[in-house]
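Inputs:
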Amino acid sequence: MSVYSLGYSMRQVFVSLRRNLGLALITSGMIAISLIAVGGFLLVALNLEQVFRNIETTMEISVFLNDEADVEEIRQNLDDHSEVLSYIFVPRDQGLTEFGEAMGNIQILTDLTGENNPLPDVFRVRARRVEAVSALASEIQAYSGVEMADYGRETLNRLIMATEWVRTFILGTSVILAIGAIFLIVTIIRMSVMARHEEISIMKYLGASNWFVRFPFVLGGMIIGWIGTIVAVSLIGVGYFRIAESLQTEALAFFLQPVLEPSKIIPIFVNMMLLGTLVGGLGSFISVRKFLKV
Amino acid sequence: MIQVNRVSKIYPENKTVALNNLTLHIERGDFVFLVGPSGAGKSTLIKLIFRENDPTEGSLYFLNRNIARMRAGELLKHRRQIGMVFQDFRLLKQKTVYENVAFALEVIGKSPKRIREKVPEALDKVNLLSKANAFPSQLSGGEQQRVGIARAIVKDPLLIMADEPTGNLDRDNSVQIMKLFENINTAGTTVIIATHAWELVNLMQKRVVTLEEGKLVRDQEWGRYK
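Outputs:
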């Protein structure tokens, strides 16, 4: 393609966008809607991951000690264990007080203090990784002086299953949405190319190369995709940070706090930009191919 | 310039035999009418020369190059040596007369300076310089076809091929168009016109190649369409 052809093609892109403004806007809008669906879904996925992570990291192993337990020795073992993130020691008296507070009435426990306290001393242990909880509990169970190490096996297993299921669901749905978006966009761009098929056919009869014909469409498609992406990213960005702000101020629960780290959010937006631009360009490339056969 | 050697073309979709063992030679500077009833193979021959289709059998040569074997770059060069004129004019409605003619040079990468020189020259040859800024919808059929001819000649092609160029025109306009083709031919460009218009063919007194059912039935210098 000569320099003059390139300049002509560039001008044609803008002339064509202006002439087919309605169709270009519809295509941009469809790209924006598709990307809002995909991007929104990815943000929901990211936050769901974080919610599960939060729940997982708060899972504790309650280590009940017997009367002969050497608390210092167990404390030393926990300190030395690589999978132990943190622990707190709850002496039996403190345990009774906490139980009373949880019941809402400390008075009824008055007779259970001192020698009558039925509760054992307890270590509440947190693991570094949720996957390590089960093995860690088994190891602690084997420590001398440990009566029982309990971690809510059922809850943990359900949580792990739910996390896996949600991950698979989100991945599958994102792929389906992305494929659907590409088909939709290719169809709309094909309509826009069909509206100009007469012009393409004339260009071919006049001796235009395939790239000369294709280039303005591909560049135009990329611009349309890019505009759609900017709209999608802006709407998602504003919407997401509004919701995030309200969640932060209302503080419904600590595990509902949204993901706000730029290192996690920015890649989603950058990928949306690339996807939108690529889909626009690729859609045009595919759509125009059929009309080049003269 | 063009050698058609025992060419047959069968369209696979409906098994129609469009050309049947056709052999024909066209020299540089010739003015040839391709005549014959509908379905005789006139348009098919034009499409094969332009390489819009490939022959089923036989071979076509343009300037001693086998058209069917041309690679992409060579095919592009081949097509740029040919100016096409259509029955339905095929002008771009949203472009002015000037822009339609300039388009033929823009798509092959000519410089703006060259375009500014060549377009008025071509419009002058078809006597449409005064309507350079008009849109196709503001022109008569004859004028639109003259724009089509200006667009075909602006790149100085070696060959002009026209498929029923007067099919949508009245007699006076048709005669004008034929005279234009004659002028172009006089200046050295080879002209091939596929037509049904026997009256015009007889008026022009040029070489007449008659096809029937894809076969060559007559090839006459200074011929008539009977």
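Remarks. The beta strands of chain A are 60-65, 84-90, 122-127, 146-150. The mean pLDDT of chain A is 82.
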